[in-house]
Predict the 3D structure of the following.
Amino acid sequence: MSLTNETIQARITEKFGDQLLNIEEPYGMLSFEVPKEMNLKVLNFLYDDEVLKFRFLTDLTAVHYPDDKGRELAVVYHLHNMEDNIRIRFKVFTDINTPDVYTATGLFSAANWMERETYDFLGVNFVGHPNLKRILNVEEMDYFPLRKEFPLEDQTRIDKDDEMFGRG
Amino acid sequence: MSEQHIKLPEGSIEKTTTTLNLGPTHPATHGVMQNILELDGERIVSADQTIGYIHRAFEKLAERRPLYQITTLTDRLNYCSSPINNMGWHLTCEKLLGLKMPKRVDYLRVIIMELSRISDHLICNSIVGVDAGAYTGFLYVMQYRELIYEIYEEVCGARLTTNIGRIGGFERNFNDIAFQKLEKFLKEYPKVLKEFENLFQRNRIFMDRTKGTGAISAERALNYGFTGPNLRAAGVDYDVRVHTPYSSYEDFQFNISVGTTGDNYDRWLVRNQEMWQSLSILEQAYQKVQEFKGAEAEVYHADAPEYYLPKKEDVYTKMEELIWHFKIVMGETQIPVGEVYHSVEGGNGELGYYLISDGGRTPFRLHFRRPCFVYYQAFEELVKGSMLSDAIMTMSSLNLIAGELDA
C-alpha cells in the first residue's frame, strides 16, 4: 500500500497539469475528469508509468446527464492497480450529438465488450473499435435505451410521475 | 466426391469448414447463450458468441426503484449464488448511506456468503464433471446444495432467488433450526467434499480431458479482465475478500488458492480448494457468532430507522415507527447524493456495483460489473485450435451464468 491518492494526484497533475478537472475523492476513490480527446493518453500514461501501473480495467460504462448541455454523456473508467491495490476512476464527457470517444481496446482486451455494451445502451461511438455493434439488445433497435429520454413507465400513468420519485 | 452431389457455380470456392451452432438451447451450454463455431473437422477455427437472450434491462429498471427493491434484481444476476449478490448490494447501499454494521451482522453475512460460495463452486465443479461424462458426483453433491438452500429458507424463506438480508442487517435473526442445519453441514460436508474430490482430482480420464485445455496466461487473463477463480487459476492471487475486505473478512484466517497454468484442470482445482477455505471460514464465523452472549447475541441489524423496517408490533403501536415504515415501504426516503463503487468476491469473480445518486429516491444510474460478462469475451482465444469437446469443457469450467451475462 505504498501508493496513495496524494501520490497519484501529484503524479498525474505533474503530467497533465490544468487538463485535469474536478479532482475529487468520493468514498475514498480518487476520481477526476479529462477532456475527451485525452482519454487514451491518460489511459496509456496510467498503464505505462512505472509508479502508477494501472493495468487492470475493472469497469467501463457511461452515464447520461440530459441537463448538462454540451456534455451529456460521461464515459466512466474504473482502473485498478493490483500491485499496490488501489483503484481510481476517471471520466470523459462528450456531446450527445457527436458522441465520439477513442476506444481502449488497443490497451485492454476487456474493453471490447464493455464498449459494445456502452454503445448498445447509451450510444457512445467508440472510434477505432474493431467490432462496434449491439451486444445485448437486438440489432434492429434504433435507439439507446439507457438514455434518460426513454422513460421506463407508461407515459399515460400519472401515479408514477417524476415527482413521486423526488425529481419534479 | 462433392461434385457428384452438389453442382457448385463456376468459380465458386468450396467451403471447407463446418458451421456449428452451439446454443442457445444446446444442453451443453448450461444457460441461454449461443456460440457460432467454425469447425475444421473437429478443430475450432473461430468462435463467435451471441449473448443477450435473457437480457432484462436491470440497469434501466433500477432507475425507477427505491434501493430496497433493487435487491430482487440482483438475485437474478448470478442465480447460483444469489445471497452474495444481495449482500454485495446491501454493502454498496450501506457504503453510500454511511451505515456501520454491528460485528454479529457482519459474521452472519459471512456465513451466508460462504455457504453460497460453496453452492456456486459445487455446481460449477460438478457440471465440469458432467460434461466430462461423470454424472455421479453431480447428483451426489446436490444433497448438500439442498442443505444449503434449506439454511437460506430458514433465514429468508426463499431458496434460489433469495432476497436475503436488508439494507442495515437481516430481516430476522437466525433461528435455532438454521444453526442446527449449519452444524449438520459443517459436520457432514467435509467428508462429502473429500469423496467428491477423490472422484475427480486424480482421475485419469478427468485429468486427460481437462489438463492443458482452455488455458490462458496470467498476463492475458488480466488484460481480459478475468477475476475470481478463473484469474487465480492463472496464477494471480487476487481476491476481493483479502484485498479490499468488506463485512469484516479481515477477521478471518484463510488462504487464497492459486493455480499455475490457467487451464480447465487448474480452474477445477482452485474452486475445489476454495470450498475447503470457505468451510474453514464458515467454522470460524460460526464460532465467532457463538461467542456473542446476552443481548449482543440477539443483534441482527444496525440502528438505522431511516432505512431498516421497524418491528411490526411497533408499527401498530408507535407513531414514529409507523411513519418510518410508511416512508420506507413507499420508497420515499431520499438517498444522499454520491457516487460509489463497491465490489464483492462473487461466485465467479469481482462483482461490482457502480451507483450514482443525485439525491432522488431512486439511483440516478446503476451499473453492474458482472464478472462473467467481462471474461466470456476471452472464450474465442481460449478454444481456438482446440477440439469441440474441449470447448464444451471450457465453457462449463468458466462458470458462465446466463443471468449474469445478460443482466
About this structure: The CA atoms of residues 127 and 158 of chain B lie 24 Å apart.
